[in-house]
Amino acid sequence: MSTTSSTPLVEGAADGPVPVKTGPSGPRARSARAYLTYVAGKLGGAAVSLFAVLVTSFFLFRIIPGDPVRTMTHGRQVSAEQLASLRRQFGLDLPVWQQFTEYCAKALSGDLGTSYQFHAPVGELIAEKLPATLLLTGVAVVIYSVLGLWLGTRSAWRHGRLGDKVNTGVALTLWSVPSFWLGLLLIITFSVGIGPIPGMFPTGGMETGGETGFGYVADVAHHMVLPVVTLVAVGYAQTLLVMRASLLDEMGSDYLTTARAKGLRDDLVRRHHAVPNALLPTVTMVFINLGHVAAGSILVETVFSWPGLGGLFYQALSVPDLPLVQGLFVVFAGAMILMNLLADLLYPLLDPRVGR
Amino acid sequence: MDTTTVPRTARPSPRALTLLAVGATALALTAAAATPLNPAPRQARADGQRTLTVAVSQSVDSLSPFLAQRLVSTTVHRLIYENLTNYDAKDNHAIPGLATKWEPSPDKLTWTYTIRENSTWSDGKQATAEDAAWTFNTMMTDEGAATANGSFVANFKKVTAPSPTKLVIELKKPQATMAALDVPILPRHEWEKVGDYARFNNDKKFPIVGNGPFILTDYKVDQYVKFKPNQKFWRGAPKFDELVLKYYKDGDAAVAALQKGEVSFASNLTPAQAASLAKAKNIKVNDAPGRRFYALATNPGARSKDGKKFGDGHPALLNPKVRQALFAATDRKTIIDKVFQGHAVEGQGYIPPRFSAYHWKPDADQRIAYDPARAAALLDEAGYKKNKAGKRVGKDGRPLDFRILCHATDPNDKAIGKYMQEWWGELGIGLKVDCLDNVSDPWLAGEYDLAFDGWSVNPDPDFVLSIHTCAALPSTPKDTGATDNFICDKKFDELYAQQTAEYDQAKRADLVKQMQSRLYDTGYMNVMAYPNAVEAYRTDQIRAITTMPESGGNLWGQDGYWSWWSAVPAEVDDTSGGSGSSTGLVIGIVTTVVLAAGLVVFVATRRRSTAEDRE
Amino acid sequence: MTVPSTAAQTASSLAWARRRGSVARFWRAYRTHRAGLFGLGALAVIALVALAAPLLVGSDVQSVTNAPGAALESPSGAFPLGTDQFGRSLLGLLIWGARISLTVGLMAAALSVAIGTLVGILAGHFGGWFSTVTMRITDWFLVMPTLVLAIVLATVMSRSVWTVILAIGVTSWPTTARLVRAQTLAVESRPYIERATALGGGHGHIMSRHVLPNVMPLVLAQTTLGISNAILTEATLAFLGLGDPDVVSWGGMLQDAREAGAVSSGHWWYLAPPGIAIAAVALAFTLCGRAVESVLNPKLGVSTR
Questions:
Q1: B103 φψ region: left (φ > 0), alpha (ψ -120 to 50), beta (else)
Q2: Residue C65 falls within a domain, yes or no?
Q3: Residues in domain ABC transmembrane type-1 (chain A) (predicted)?
Q4: pLDDT per residue as tens digits for the range B325-372
Q5: CB-based contact (8 Å) between C263 and chain A?
Q6: Residue C269 belongs to a domain
Q7: What is the DSSP letter of A279?
Q8: What's the number of domains chain C is made of?
Q9: Which 60-79 residues of chain A touch chain B by CB within 8 A?
Q10: Which positions ≥6 away from A243 have C-beta within 8 Å?
Q11: What is the pTM of this model?
Q12: How far apart are CA B37 and CA C91, in angstroms?
């Protein structure tokens, strides 16, 4: 659920807007030059969005009540001078607009500040945890996209028959399941073990430690199975449904009727004409899911003690460790912007209607 | 909308799919490459290597003793650095650590420590009084270095090392806690080079140079901390070949790992977990008296040293009868039985019975027992009578509606809050349970009526007593004070000053008991329970281990390194690597391969169909 | 009675008749969707149980001091689903929890759709720079990580049911806004709107009398789909400990179960029912939503052509 919560399950794929589309509907670029203009526009838009995210993250977290300096010094005798020096150290003594310009200037040069609680640069902390999150969610998104595409295609072909109904039904049911709950059940069943089922997977974490080379890869893969299964189970429905809907839409189109009339074999028509066209909205959606990757696994990371960004975010929020929260927010939103941008840029390249 | 207006050029476009597949693979590869698949080569595991794995739930905040404040970090420091003194596992009395002897001057203002000659840093250099003097002096002069333990040196005037075995500390005022300085002594030759102590986390260069029973060899944020035994440790080397603190965000995951033998020890068990583990084979549940007290704090009207009042505590709480009534309407026995399910001891004085030298109990006539009828009578006397709606209202027309600050992360707070709402509701008192992740803000601002409060008590009670003195109040409303609950009581302060300067143990203990009696009577800190430390370990991995106190004590978070230093590996070491997990590993790999194969097959079918088309 | 008023009355009764007719048509089409009917039936049952909860289990079910059982009992005749750590009946709590979970789901979805509809209609109707700016803001909300934003909001505000509703509502409206704007543009391009404008209908009149009724079906479908999302998000926030500790909700029950250590103690009967309940309600709303959507827009694949 985590990865899908912000893109509601709309079947209206044929209406063009798969949930997020930052540009005007369907680009109609007719030439390389037009495409370049389009790219420039999209890049500009993404830059504006990124700046907006920077601004929001700064001001959004200023509304979290409380004074981080006081929180950190809770329970210790701290003089007014010490507090002032801490505030100076964190740059909290400056007027807000000045803090803001400084923050923007630093952020643009890649410096996200220093975490209050870990006494370390935010960029470093994020870089330390990012690979774990990328690995887990990246693998999950790849698997559920492929699975969704495949099942969605099958479902559309067998449209209306029992196979389709079972397929869609299972997907919808799994989609309705809270991911954290599914994760807990998987832990009970396959980690702790119930009855005859042995506890065959680790209960959490990313590695046992002490392994090297192939052993290490196998160890990480072993730790990844349950969290990936959780993410895939609750995630693939969306891809499936969009693929199914757009394929059905394609199959009803005039050109297919024409193609059929020309005597082309039915399955060939489907495979070579309908599927590629139908892939369009689905691919867009895959990219959007990739954008959710960073933020999407907060719950699954929590349940499986995965050492990624989700846990870090939660820790940061409770202090509140402003620089860390801000940094993570920028990373989460930045990932979405980047992936939307990629989807937008790929769209005209994939769209068979665009003659280049 | 328009789906048919644009005639589609039905161009076979496997491009889309290929692109997707390529993109997906690229992503998987990037993700895989970005993960350190080949970390620094570790030492090969010799057969029969015995590892003691301890499940921890807290992230390490810093590996620098100057900065570290969390229990997990200070535990790590206990294992890798020596303090001047240590606490005896039997009865908590001060025993030699890095210092072998310590004595005050007749005027009580100068303490002289004799530093042992048989403690060496792990790089071979001798640990001397120089190192200790440098550590204290750095904390006294550098603000960053004083972050975690600055309070220990606040009363120091001068620290010198006249010889490698002699450390002299001059005080501004007498201080009875000089055998309880919980400050790790650091190797000067390593730490002098550090530039900014406020930012140095001591986590870049391994192994970390230390002189404790263990040497820290590796650390990965939120994953593990690894140690090797210090073979040259003066008290004798630990018996396990390796110690690993393994991080589990989720308590259930840690318990499951214990059940499977992935870890040897887990702590902070819930009653349900303890009950189910007690039935398991090869697992011993250790239900030991804790070192915490768990109290109901009432806001005495927040104020600062300059006399300014702030915050918005309910004025009715300034009436001692109301405070007494609230406590009399709190059924401590039910809290122990239902919330802690027997894993706690009913609260009495401020200091838990584990520290028997200082523990105090109220007399029968002083004790506020659970008695709702008396609570109702007290409230009536105080002028808070029930109105028609059944609510108690004061003469000023303000109803007795309280807020209680609760830690969102502590299930006990929430549970007891539920009970209090019902008990007090029957008396006509309203209660709103304010659960927050971060209670510090309203707390420091004095914006609360009641609060769930609790502290871990050290063998030396000075600190937990000091936080209720007037001196601990913030200087102005804008400052932060060390105060816990804004208590400022003259009589308590007088007793505190006396005990600080009292170097005679028995007399000091008596003063400490008098202070607790006074605290009890004020009704600002009502101790409800002393929660037990509920832990469990695998007996097929650990044969013997020292608890603290030695009879019936606990293992995690001791005042000393006794548990992990003393742990003896079990003879038959069949599960420590997790034999169950190797079958699991095989199944896991198979599953992974199948998933990957499925992906390949899928892409391949697509490709084949493309080929067909090209014919 | 004057003539114009009679005419107006006739017009309005005509309009009513028309609407009744379209509702009937809608229902006939909806009936053909078996999954939709199934979802609707399930919802009816759950809603009935939630409404009748005070009769079925009594409000006493939440009381900890009068809890009838011992802590964490396994299922038995007296407690079909066992008890929680306070000794309260889990079946009772599950039934009682339906009230909160449904309320939060409905209200959050309603809030989200209300915001989305308002923004969408305004942006679609006024067009120009206003539309551009509004849609920019909408797009920008779309790239915000919703769950992260909701967690932040829930952390910032005090723990209460309203906070959860607000946190879900204000983070999930942009999709609706986009769809409603598109629909508004389509409606306003129809000739009768031009006529209405020519007859002197103001902005308010056009938007409320012509555009709104026409986007209502879309809004309905969005709401239904939004509810299942809102219920899941509510469970998520409660599970992360950001819910109201004073009320019993399904997500909160899961959080309680986890805090009690139900997972590692193998108390699956504590953990399973709330999750199944959440999934069932979310699924039921999704099925209804999909059915509604395909009735309104038959070219989407669900229809049984």
A1: beta
A2: no
A3: 130-347
A4: 999 999 999 999 999 999 999 999 999 999 999 999 999 999 999 999
A5: yes
A6: yes
A7: H
A8: 1
A9: 65-67, 69-71, 73-79
A10: A148, A149, A152, A153, A156, A278, A279, A282
A11: 0.83
A12: 48
